[in-house]
Amino acid sequence: MSFVEILDSLALRKSELVEHFERLIAPKSDQDLEAMAQTSRSLTLQNFGRTMRLFAPLYLSNECINNCRYCGFSRDNPILRATLDVDEVVAEARHLARQGFRQILLVAGEHPKFAGRDYLAECVHALAPDFSSISIEVGPMETEDYAPIVDAGAEGLVVYQETYNRGVYSEMHTSGPKRDFNFRLDCVERGYAAGFRRLGVGALIGLSRWPDEAIALAAHLEHLFKHCWQAQITVSLPRLRPAAGGFHPLFLMTDRELVQLVCALRISFPQLGIVLSTRERAPLRDSLASIGVTMMSAGSHTEPGGYTRQGREHLHRTVRGRIVAPEYQDGEDELATGQFEISDERSPAEIAEILRRRGLEPVWKDWDRALCGV
Ligand code: SF4
Question: In principle, which of 82, 147, 186, 363 could form an S-S bond with 311, CB 3.0–4.6 Å?
Fold first, then answer.
């Protein structure tokens, strides 16, 4: 059965695992939550040791043909846009490599003209000698379009469904190919068929009630663990931040609820990689590092060229998708606009030091590929 069918019948039929997960995310006393955190901590230790993988996002392009109400990169926003050429991508990546990173996530808005298959394969090919793990987070593609990107050296594919609620999905994605809910839902499996061996999924927290999103996400994870069994599966739980275009999250999730969700995911899926981005504040990131999170971004920039100010020659604005000269407003930085605000602005070295102080080993380079021969 495809995951589309499973999702559509989820209200009527849940697996035992998903029912158990639903009980884990129900409101809990402080004492019960503490017990969950203890179990989560020891399962994380058993399955991942005292390690924390560190990675950095590298934004290639903020061009996009979609309008998503919560995202500053939306086509109709008159933001400063740029797509880095391959040399500029390499310059940004070298900066990250000098900071210690060997795991990188290439991010681009959905725009086949600017960030299509051939461009992505070229970027991956140029970075492969310097990075042990390259993942991409770009618009969904067909299996045959992913294949050359895998061949060039990418091993990871990240595709958040954003929301598993079809009605909310339709309201949030007002135009562009992203309106096709099912095409996005099946994307991770198309990536697996093309050869990606790290698969990342997630839902944006803030578009609908978080427990509903979490239950659908758990069902998706269960499906992927069964059907993509050769891949490492990761999940990300980005809580929405204010973005260009004036969007504010519609539903809130407290820090306590986020901690409970991380624990519930760890208890239900002991081998699941759990990713936490710099959207979250430093103190919360530090405490989640010991409870269940296994992978963190650090020192992130969400604007193309943000690390070394690359790409300024290509800067332009778009008005309803039409390219116009940039015309900077007073005090505006001559740099492409970022996707969202960062909350944890500590440097990668500072974050690594804090992890060490908490008894965790920061892992900059992942040896899995060499060990597994994948
Ligand atoms: S969320 Fe992705 S697809 Fe939507 S506007 Fe932003 S970059 Fe484009």
Answer: 82
The candidate with the shortest Cα–Cα distance to 300, out of 28, 48, 99, is: 99
Tell me what the pLDDT averaged over the chain comes to.
93
Residue type, 308: T
- Please give the sequence-ordered ranges of beta strands (E in DSSP) within the chain, or none if there are none: 51-61, 67-68, 80-81, 103-108, 133-137, 156-158, 173-175, 198-202, 232-236, 273-276, 295-297, 316-319, 322-324, 361-363
Any idea which residue has 């019948």 for tokens? 9
pLDDT (tens digit per residue) in 205-236: 999 999 999 999 999 999 999 999 999 999 99
Q: Is 66 in the pocket of ligand 1 (CB under 6 A)?
A: yes
Write out the two tokens for 267.
Answer: 């208890």
pTM: 0.95
In angstroms, the CA 63 to CA 61 distance is: 6
Cβ proximity of 121 and 91 under 8 Å: no
How far apart, in Å, are the Cα atoms of 74 and each of 23, 149, 211, 245, 373? Answer: 37, 25, 27, 8, 40
Residues constituting the chain: 374
- The atom number, within ligand 1, closest to the CA of 65 reads 8
Q: How confident is the model at residue 279 (pLDDT cuts 50, 70, 90)?
A: confident
CA of 50 to the centre of ligand 1 (A): 35
Q: Please tell me the predicted confidence (pLDDT) of residue 242.
A: 64
- Residue 103's SS3 state is strand
Q: Which two tokens stand for residue 21?
A: 């997960």
Collect all residues with Cβ–Cβ distance below 8 Å to 212 and sequence separation of at least 6. 164, 165
